[in-house]
Amino acid sequence: MEIQSWTFLLVGMTFTLYIGIAIWARAGSTSEFYVAGGGVHPVANGMATAADWMSAASFISMAGIISFIGYDGGVYLMGWTGGYVLLALCLAPYLRKFGKFTVPDFIGDRYYSKTARMVAVFCAIFVSFTYVAGQMRGVGVVFARFLEVDINMGIIIGMGIVFFYAVLGGMKGITYTQVAQYCVLIFAFMVPAIFTSIMMTGSPIPQLGFGSTLNGSETYLLEKLDGLTTELGFTPYTDGSKSMIDVFFICAALMVGTAGLPHVIIRFFTVPKVKDARISAGWALLFIAILYTTAPAVAAFARINLIDTINGPDLKGVDAEQAPSWITNWQKTGLVAWEDKNNDGKMFYSGDERNEMTINRDIIVLASPELAKLPNWVVALLAAGGLAAALSTAAGLLLVISTSISHDLLKKGFRPNMTEKQELLAARAGAAVAIIGAGYLGINPPGFVAEVVAFSFGLAASSFFPAIILGIFYRGMNKAGAISGMIAGITFTASYIIYFKFINPAANISDNWLFGISPEGIGTLGMCLNFVVSLVVNKFTAAVPQDVQDMVESIRYPQGAGEAHQH
């Protein structure tokens, strides 16, 4: 069967499964729409959290970044994984014991202020919009290639599908859909990785193949890759070109941004007890690690195959008439292009002026089975996995946007007398508006998928993280300090990103960056600014009421922690 037939079959089967689950687990109340009624098993919640967490950035784009920039791409691996540990240990159990649906709910009650809640709602919507734009772009990349349509058309198709099952099922539908999506995406990621590892190194474990010698040779895989990239004018694969300070700041922004991401935090409210929140976090880390430890191997295998298939074994280029099928397939999407600069009819790929190929980083994982000449069904399986990854996270983010609008903005803000039915309707309307906005940003993206997602982590780090940490561990933190800190942090970070990415992109070089920190890492500086402003303003404004101090003290004690708060 052709790739397209396999794709329709496998994607159709997985979508039928997701939509069937969404209908079976349809939300009937706000409790089921927001937190799945609080009755999800820790292992299932761990799988759902892993699917929610591993977005299009993890599945499609992360290995693509590592494949193209080598050593420096590892910062995404370290930051995102480390951030999850921070979230599981320092925040999730305490927020779970506090018993609030959403981050703005926590901030509104902890800082005894409607203004604090509104600032948090704005930050949650802004962060989630930035993140979901990256997911819609990822969905568009998959659909563009496998339906052989323009990428913008692919994004519009994805918008319709996400809308259907996120709006219908709420958190209950999304949780069980995400369990299925985790199984699909991990199987889809590992099968081609294992096949390619056996073909190239003889090892069935990609993580070991990554450090092994190539079949029939005494040359190590990374040694060959370094030689190829250097010869073709790229920087050596295993050398880093980013400054130490920038690597540190990006890594820290991704870590603390994780701990402030609203759509991941909300997952810890879907289990019955606080203990289960910790257990499900442990399971999620295990499920996430399977993909994250495989990604560098997938990146290296794909990079070698990419160079070999375009430049040929002798590195002199291949005739355009005999171009590998993956190039012609991806050219239809506009994500791969060839310009015959020297009119010799040969394609050539390099890192200097000889280069004739334009290759989008986001295609590398989806193209990897074609690069390795794997069977058509493996190519189609990866398409199903890429869609599972992008759609699972998009659904979680849309839920955050819709609950922020209906629960925090309307119910707890402007319209406290809303009935439950009206609140549920407002949540669904909020999700619809969010999908349209995210689709627009997917069609006009400010960067490639992982880069857009990195911005949202920086925004979460600079706005939410200090307010949550101080709210849990410093009972003397008052509302004026928290509000000032959040506004200062997100304004500084957003302004920096917008200036270098939209207003003056030509200036986006390390010479012009503040202290040499790139827009991807500036969230760490925004977080530091948030902490400083919060603590300074706190010192000169009214003390926290005693009842709030007592409440904060009680969050950190284990007694009564076994019971879930009833809503």
UniProtKB/TrEMBL annotation:
It is a multi-pass membrane protein. It is found in: Membrane. Pfam families: SSF. Its main location: membrane. It comes from the Bacteria. Belongs to the sodium:solute symporter (SSF) (TC 2.A.21) family. This is Cation acetate symporter. It comes from Photobacterium aquimaris.
